[in-house]
Design a protein that fits this description.
methyltransferase; Rossmann fold; metal ion binding; binds S-adenosylmethionine; binds zinc ion; 11 strands; 8 helices; transferase; methyltransferase activity; about 270 residues
């Protein structure tokens, strides 16, 4: 028992094909194994989060392995902080998308019988395809503005390029629990920016302010990519600058032999002060 009813905040108990709270609010388990804990009245739009096209673009690009070094770095840092003692260890991937990192975290923690990995995203399309591909992860559709977990029930959380309500994060995290964030470093995809903006500015890499958390570790991970024109277009589609790219930019990418660009990630490990 770890999910919380999004309507009355009581614990949800697992039944054969659904999750139910003491007030009989019921959430069915989908065929793919995930549970939708986003009530209609909490939705800001009809189809919140990434669309099916964005999700498919991300899956295609990630499948090609370009971000595998990041996947390894995330798994290594999380495995270092998850104890293999006898208490349940819940690891939550917030805004997990189609589950590329979530699925790898399950594998990295597979020797730890007490670890359970959860993936949460507001996009039903993303969660549906994540659940199909990674059956060992407990996936739910929910908003990171209202996390459907009981207080102090999560041991570690992962947040890769995804928004989250900091008060909610602190509420669900056990004291001393860890948060791993991944954000763009100064030169991340600078070559795309140079195509789109007159003046390509470096990302501001200052750590965000997370009151109540202490920063334990910070690592930079940067490496070059040499992309085919198809992969470059897919990557551009995944980024927030896609909607700013004029047709000439897409045209230029479509005709390059190879597109060289830099990745630059910052991985930060935070601990919730007890
Ligand atoms: C840039 S993607 C990153 C996905 C994944 N972490 C990755 O790196 O592959 C951001 C994700 O956050 C999700 N998202 C956006 N707003 C959200 C919210 N309020 N609650 C939960 N997920 C949200 C989107 O649907 C999308 O899957
Ligand atoms: Zn309820």
């Amino acid at each position: 028992m770890s999910y919380q009813c999004p309507l009355c905040h009581q614990p949800l108990c697992r039944q054969e094909t659904s999750w139910v709270c003491i007030n009989r609010h019921q959430f069915d388990r989908a065929r793919e194994g995930y549970v939708n804990l986003l009530p209609v009245q909490h939705k800001r739009s009809k189809q919140p989060g990434d669309s099916a096209e964005m999700m498919q673009a991300r899956r295609q690009f990630l499948n090609e392995g370009h971000y595998q070094p990041l996947q390894h770095g995330v798994c290594r840092l999380l495995a270092e902080v998850i104890d293999s003692d006898t208490t349940p260890q819940r690891v939550l991937d917030i805004g997990c998308g189609e589950g590329y990192y979530t699925g790898a975290v399950v594998q990295a923690l597979s020797a730890n019988a007490n670890a359970r990995v959860y993936g949460l995203d507001v996009s039903r399309e993303a969660i549906r395809s994540a659940a199909k591909r990674y059956p060992d992860v407990a996936f739910c559709v929910a908003s990171s503005q209202r996390l459907p977990f009981m207080d102090s029930s999560v041991s570690a959380a992962l947040r890769i390029y995804a928004p989250c309500n900091p008060d909610e994060l602190a509420r669900v995290m056990r004291p001393g629990g860890y948060l791993l964030t991944v954000t763009p470093g100064p030169r991340h995809l600078l070559q795309f920016k140079a195509l789109i903006y007159q003046e390509a500015k470096l990302h501001d890499a200052a750590p965000e302010s997370l009151p109540g958390w202490s920063l334990c570790k910070e690592e930079s991970l940067a490496y070059p990519l040499s992309l085919s024109s198809d992969s470059a277009a897919t990557l551009l589609q995944m980024t927030p600058f896609a909607w700013r790219a004029r047709p000439e930019v897409w045209g230029r990418i479509a005709t390059v032999e190879r597109f060289a660009c830099e990745t630059d990630f910052i991985l930060r490990l935070w601990q919730l002060q007890p």
